[in-house]
């Protein structure tokens, strides 16, 4: 981390689902690069712990409990951010659920609803809430998945919701430009709690590594670096794009 710059000095960044895993690393990276960071997730103690970890690194951070499918929580997240920091420069929508490994035709309606609600609808509703406070030159990054391109059977419907984010990125980029850029990161496989069911199994892990061209899983820092790039002015002529960060796992041409 010694070489990182200060691209977010004076900027305010909200990252959803940011108390561990990819979201935490994104918040950490933006904070190390100078942003004031608003952390959030469902559990107060996770929020408190994560804020403590960032503050210990000299990062300006606050935490707000926000279950992304709760309207009052979303409103509160944005209100607290604006009260404390005045405006918003970066929103990273990172929350997702993958509650079932059923095939699509066997997935219960309640699970279909949950997948849509957490993985797609909540991103839209958070941005509706944030939009009036976004500064000129602001940036949104949605976190999709390599599964959005290749919805494998064990996570097919989850993959389809991640495909929806690719379209959402295009549509929102058109709607929110020129003042706000909207981009997307599609991570490959990263050994977090979320992906434990795949990456803890030695055989599956080896299969995934073999599918990459770099012979390894991704790290949360890999995802944070790509997200920070898209959110920063280094990407000031990039909008409506998805950056696949998957070690070369096939996605699209
Ligand atoms: P993770 O390590 O399991 O972290 C999940 C974080 O989300 C935690 O901070 C959790 O804290 C919070 N959270 C969970 N449900 C939430 C909700 N409904 N509302 C608000 N916060 C919530 O997960 P991850 O692997 O970093 O995944 C982050 C994103 O990357 C997801 O969008 C996922 O689809 C995507 N992704 C991951 C991989 C991978 O291989 N890991 C690959 C492709 C894409 P609380 O428990 O306190 O809520």
From TrEMBL:
Residue stretches in coiled coil: none
InterPro entries tied to this protein: NAD(P)-bd_dom_sf (IPR036291), Sc_DH/Rdtase_CS (IPR020904), SDR_fam (IPR002347)
UniProt xrefs under Gene3D superfamilies: NAD(P)-binding Rossmann-like Domain
UniProt cross-references to Pfam families, sorted A to Z: adh_short_C2
Stated family: Belongs to the short-chain dehydrogenases/reductases (SDR) family.
Cited PANTHER family: DEHYDROGENASE/REDUCTASE (SDR FAMILY) MEMBER 4 (PTHR43943), DEHYDROGENASE_REDUCTASE 4 (PTHR43943:SF2)
Identification of the protein by name: Tropinone reductase-like 3
């Amino acid at each position: 981390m010694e070489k990182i710059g200060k691209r977010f000095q004076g900027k305010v960044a909200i990252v959803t689902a940011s108390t561990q895993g990819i979201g935490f690393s994104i918040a950490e990276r933006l904070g190390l690069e100078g942003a004031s960071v608003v952390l959030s997730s469902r559990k107060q103690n996770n929020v408190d712990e994560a804020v403590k970890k960032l503050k210990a690194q000299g990062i300006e951070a606050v935490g707000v409990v926000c279950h992304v499918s709760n309207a009052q929580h979303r409103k509160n997240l944005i209100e607290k951010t604006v009260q404390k920091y005045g405006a918003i420069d970066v929103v990273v929508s990172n929350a997702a659920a993958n509650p079932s490994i059923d095939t699509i035709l066997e997935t219960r309606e309640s699970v279909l609803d949950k997948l849509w609600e957490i993985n797609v609808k909540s991103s839209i509703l958070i941005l509706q809430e944030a939009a009036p406070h976004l500064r000129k030159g602001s940036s949104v990054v949605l976190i999709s998945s390599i599964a959005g391109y290749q919805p494998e059977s064990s996570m097919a419907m989850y993959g389809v919701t991640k495909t929806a984010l690719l379209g959402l990125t295009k549509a929102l980029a058109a709607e929110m430009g020129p003042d706000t850029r909207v981009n997307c990161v599609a991570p490959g496989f990263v050994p977090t709690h979320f992906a434990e069911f795949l990456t803890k199994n030695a055989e599956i892990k080896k299969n995934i590594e073999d599918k990459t061209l770099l012979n390894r899983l991704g790290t949360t820092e890999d995802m944070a670096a790509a997200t920070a790039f898209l959110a920063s002015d280094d990407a000031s002529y990039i909008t409506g794009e998805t950056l696949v960060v998957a070690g070369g796992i096939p996605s699209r041409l």
